[in-house]
Amino acid sequence: MTVTFVTTNPGKVNEAREYLAEPVEQLDFDTPEIQSADLGAIAAHKARAAYEHAGEPVFVDDAGLFVDAFDGFPGPYSSYVHDTVGVERVWRLTSEEDDRAASFRGVVAYCDGQEFEATPEPVDREDRRGRDLAADERGAATTDEQVRTDDGDGDALPVKLFYGVVPGEIVAPRGDGGFGYDPIFEYDDRTFAEMDPDEKNAVSHRGRALAKFADWLAERDTPE
Ligand code: ITT
């Protein structure tokens, strides 16, 4: 089964192709995004909108850079900050701080219009933040979730979420690879922009989420 990755970002598609056994096709559509402090909620909404647009099984990805010294900013606003302030100035702002720790967090969200076991919609909860932080410390991903409702009435399409987190540090830009904030995000002495795509995938937020998505997809019944 071909899975359709609805994204405007070809860098994300290259990374997904490294991971999934199924052929991945990009559908270049700028899916409307809700404003929320919770990447899971944004991704779930995005996945439903993408499915309604495409009319076939889809997945989307929502990611952000969370700088500890700024209480997680730019986080869910990473795209806006990237396009307005830019990577170089995010580095300069962070360079004034003693603590330059940061994490990339990402959520892959799948929707195919089919029923599968679901749990309540993610909301901006303290316990979720606590789990994310604990996961950061371990350098591991948070738990995955299946979500059904966006308003509590149970009518919304089920969505399956896969989380990935990677801890790192903000540094002066280095490297020509990757995309977005990769040149200023250092993991294990190298920036993500200094890594090959497969090296980045092996440790990145997206790689961790995609690995779990790939396992789930492989085990799951193919929809009609
Ligand atoms: P979509 O069409 O899939 O939404 P996007 O590039 O707008 O593509 P996001 O909203 O998820 O994707 O990304 C928020 C910002 O974070 C954006 O500026 C990305 O370039 C950046 N970003 C996301 N994943 C990244 C990664 O793995 N490495 C570096 N920057 C990343």
TrEMBL record:
InterPro entries in alphabetical order: ITPase-like_fam, RdgB/HAM1
Keywords: Hydrolase
Lineage of origin: Archaea, Methanobacteriati, Methanobacteriota, Stenosarchaea group, Halobacteria
Pfam families per the UniProt record, alphabetical: Ham1p_like
Record bears the keyword Hydrolase: yes
Organism per entry: Halosimplex pelagicum
UniProt-listed SUPFAM superfamilies: ITPase-like
Any one GO molecular function term: nucleoside triphosphate diphosphatase activity
Disordered as annotated region, ranges: 117-153
Protein name: Non-canonical purine NTP pyrophosphatase
A GO BP annotation: nucleoside triphosphate catabolic process
GO cellular component, one term: cytoplasm
Record's keyword annotation contains Iron-sulfur: no
Biased composition (Basic and acidic residues): 122-151
Similarity comment: family membership: Belongs to the HAM1 NTPase family.
